[in-house]
Amino acid sequence: MALAVTSSSSKAIFGSGFLLSSSSSEPKVSQIGSFRLLERPQMAPTIASKRRSSVKPVNAEPKRNDSLVPLAATVVAPEVEEKVEVEDFEQLAKDLEDASPLEIMDKALEKFGNDIAIAFSGAEDVALIEYAHLTGRPYRVFSLDTGRLNPETYHFFDTVEKHYGIHMEYMFPDSVEVQALVRSKGLFSFYEDGHQECCRVRKVRPLRRALKGLRAWITGQRKDQSPGTRSEIPVVQVDPVFEGLDGGTGSLVKWNPVANVQGGDIWNFLRAMNVPVNSLHSKGYISIGCEPCTRPVLPGQHEREGRWWWEDAKAKECGLHKGNIKQEDGKQLNGNGNGPAHSNGAPAVADIFNSQNLVTLTRTGIENLSRLDNRQEPWLVVLYAPWCQFCQAMEGSYIELADKLAGSGVKVGKFRADGEEKEYAKRELQLGSFPTILFYPKHSSKAIKYPSEKRDVDSFMAFVNALR
Ligand code: SF4
């Protein structure tokens, strides 16, 4: 990723590791903030912040940063005074829960000055840059150039730089690591053995390097992007994963100014403010990542279905480990050689969705169900694989749903769609990834796919009640 420093306030600042540019040479006095974790036995969201009020030098000439060496090392700011303050980010998150993204952004930039940067992916998170611009404060932007982005994304980066008068600080993968990966496994190894290895080299490590030069970062995460995993995102938190400049757990703060904003409202904001957007959006892309690993999605599809869509075909990508499969001598091994096979050729793991109120459909059963124009009652059917962690995660709510619907006139079923059934399910049953949930209305042969990632009972009931 790259940090850009801008700005509407026409200030450029030197940073620890990133160079910010300015459209003006007007000097500005600002604070440099730093923080360290209180000495507690466990990571706590409370951070002791040692702030120094200082006169920050201004970058007189806009200049593109081409080095990760902290520039602060060469520019020493005179200390004026020193005080220690304690920052409780959990409390701050509560205080800011109802604040607008602009307010949150302003608070983040005010608190961390040159030690914070916006992580920009090249998608609708351009809204973060617009908010930062609107605060009138200097800000920095970084982006990860994996080397595999779409041409449209590179053009978009350029457009954004020109629109805001900033220079983004691009982070690149280590050339030796990329070379080793590509020479040993080829350019598209992720289609064969999953995206983790390539992402680790091209994304995660460069990100880690970028964050090591900061004390805080700003992301475009939203709660509505993935209700299963992001529903609890606070607007600010001590980063639970990455380390900042001071090193160690808790040395980095993560700001999520649009955590509470709906995707539709982000787009309304972008339109209202006439913000440039990536041209890939007009081609059906929602989520935008690397070119080989991102594809457009259709209306009603979740954006997640446009990323690494092939991976549900790999049991190991869905949490399958050898320890989950009991090898039984004399039984046929599945295609991966990982364990004994189910009769459909898939791994023989313990079945899930077992309930007296759930009907187990065979291939013939679901073929018949799919052919009928007039059913006695509507059906809800989950296409699943018992080894899939996402299927396992919704097992409780789906069984509860079946119990609730028992006797209501809506049948609830399951069809195991991995192994040999997978091609059929993809071709005939709209299977994209596991789990796929279909509603068969009473008077139509066409099944309706459940479009959401919300897999709680209430969401399922709302879906069923809207269609029954
Ligand atoms: Fe590699 Fe795809 Fe990950 Fe990009 S998204 S780093 S190309 S695996």
From TrEMBL:
Cross-referenced Pfam families: PAPS_reduct, Thioredoxin
Q: Which domain of life is it from?
A: Eukaryota
What cofactor does this chain's UniProt record say it requires? Answer: [4Fe-4S] cluster
Name this polypeptide is given: Thioredoxin domain-containing protein
Organism of origin: Xanthoceras sorbifolium
* Classification via InterPro entries: PAPS/APS_Rdtase, PAPS_reduct_dom, Rossmann-like_a/b/a_fold, Thioredoxin-indep_APS_Rdtase, Thioredoxin-like_sf, Thioredoxin_domain
Keywords for this protein: Iron, Iron-sulfur, Metal-binding, Oxidoreductase
Which NCBIfam families does the entry mention? APS_reduc, PRK02090.1
Question: Domain Thioredoxin spans what residues?
Answer: 347-468
Annotated TM spans:
none
Q: What is the lineage of its organism?
A: Eukaryota, Viridiplantae, Streptophyta, Embryophyta, Tracheophyta
